């Protein structure tokens, strides 16, 4: 007994047709499969059963049937494309419906299923169809993107931390871990003022906060948070990925002069601190954080405003990564002022426009 007769299909007998998925009603694959009428989507093959009155339907009958399916909103499209009798109706495919402007995939599939039922009632076999999986996935992705964009916040707002002890006295870095430096009294006032500025900007809109785990950032957040009610703040999260660039565990004053000279020579993006990070490392953290931010925005977790309380370098690299600025441009950006707000406004085209002014070297 041959492999074919025993039901075993050899690899050489398998052929891919049209890059799609074959209807289960299609005949077995043979060398002449391409010529089989069921492989042509525009072909309806008759059985021995006499035709039913469906083939004699007029436009009124079609609209009544369409209404019964729950899709009366498409009757004008059927009229515009001259789907006015039963014979034409039963030749419609999903591709035809798409070209007619019926964009919702589920509606197209439901109508096609209804047409297949009419074919069976008329003693006709449903037309074989190849489902273009790539096409369907693209449409589903686009639909998902449209739904996600509706959940996006009105703004993404970056805020650098308030003035810290380290901003006033660099020698503290030699004895105090960077993550434990506090904000100053002036910094507390800056944080409160930033909260009021943010409140004035967003009014009663909802917001979500992402905060660096460094003490100065958390204290800044506390000052900003005081301007808002619990109902207005939908989301608060401490995220280590948005922390300050790591300069090493402690900064030895005797060595920092040479370190900073090397950094200026190499550039802050590429220079790596001994036992610390380079700007490029922080850039990679920004990229990873953005993946989570996009997911959160798509699910509406941030509310109407996503607020990021972080550090100067992180904020500049966030903007560089987000807007795909060249590294040369990043090197020309000035650091943000303490508690400076940088606002990015969501636009109808799905992009965020930078509306704040940044200081840039010529």
Automatic annotation (TrEMBL):
Domain of life: Eukaryota
PROSITE patterns the record matches: SAM_DOMAIN
Region of interest called Disordered, as start-end residue ranges on this chain: 1-52
Domain SAM: 57-121
Positions annotated to bind substrate: 160-167, 216
Active-site residues from the entry: 161 (tele-phosphohistidine intermediate), 244 (proton donor/acceptor)
Transmembrane domains' residue ranges: none
Classification via CDD domains: HP_PGM_like, SAM_superfamily
Regions of compositional bias (Basic and acidic residues) in chain numbering: 1-15, 31-45
InterPro entries: His_Pase_superF_clade-1 (IPR013078), His_PPase_superfam (IPR029033), PGM-Related (IPR052765), SAM (IPR001660), SAM/pointed_sf (IPR013761)
Protein name, UniProt field: SAM domain-containing protein
Organism phylogeny: Eukaryota, Metazoa, Porifera, Demospongiae, Heteroscleromorpha
């Amino acid at each position: 007994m041959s492999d074919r007769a025993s039901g075993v299909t050899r690899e050489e007998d398998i052929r891919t047709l049209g890059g799609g998925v074959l209807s289960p009603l299609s005949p077995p694959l043979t060398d002449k499969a391409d010529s089989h009428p069921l492989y042509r989507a525009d072909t309806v093959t008759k059985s021995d059963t006499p035709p039913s009155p469906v083939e004699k339907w007029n436009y009124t009958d079609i609209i009544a049937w369409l209404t019964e399916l729950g899709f009366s909103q498409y009757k004008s499209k059927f009229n515009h494309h001259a789907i006015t009798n039963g014979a034409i109706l039963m030749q419609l495919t999903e591709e035809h419906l798409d070209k007619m402007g019926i964009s919702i995939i589920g509606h197209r599939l439901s109508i096609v299923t209804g047409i297949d039922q009419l074919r069976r009632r008329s003693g006709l076999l449903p037309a074989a169809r190849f489902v273009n999986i790539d096409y369907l996935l693209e449409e589903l992705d686009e639909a998902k993107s449209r739904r996600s964009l509706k959940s996006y916040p009105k703004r993404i707002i970056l805020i650098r931390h308030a003035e810290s002890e380290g901003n006033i006295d660099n020698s503290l870095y030699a004895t105090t871990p960077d993550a434990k430096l506090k904000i100053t009294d002036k910094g507390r006032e800056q944080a409160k003022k930033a909260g009021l500025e943010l409140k004035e900007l967003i009014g009663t809109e909802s917001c979500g906060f992402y905060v660096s785990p460094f003490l100065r950032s958390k204290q800044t957040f506390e000052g900003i948070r005081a301007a808002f009610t619990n109902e207005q703040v939908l989301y608060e999260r401490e995220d280590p990925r948005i922390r300050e660039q790591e300069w090493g565990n402690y900064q030895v004053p005797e060595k920092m002069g040479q370190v900073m000279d090397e950094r200026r020579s190499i550039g802050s993006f590429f220079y790596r601190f001994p036992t610390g990070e380079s700007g490029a490392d922080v850039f990679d953290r920004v990229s990873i954080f953005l993946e989570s931010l996009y997911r959160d925005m798509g699910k509406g977790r941030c509310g109407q405003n996503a607020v990021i309380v972080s550090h100067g370098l992180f904020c500049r690299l966030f903007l560089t990564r987000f807007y795909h600025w060249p590294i040369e441009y990043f090197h020309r950006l000035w650091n943000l002022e303490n508690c400076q707000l940088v606002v990015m406004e969501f636009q109808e085209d799905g992009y965020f426009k930078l509306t704040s002014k940044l200081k840039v070297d010529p």
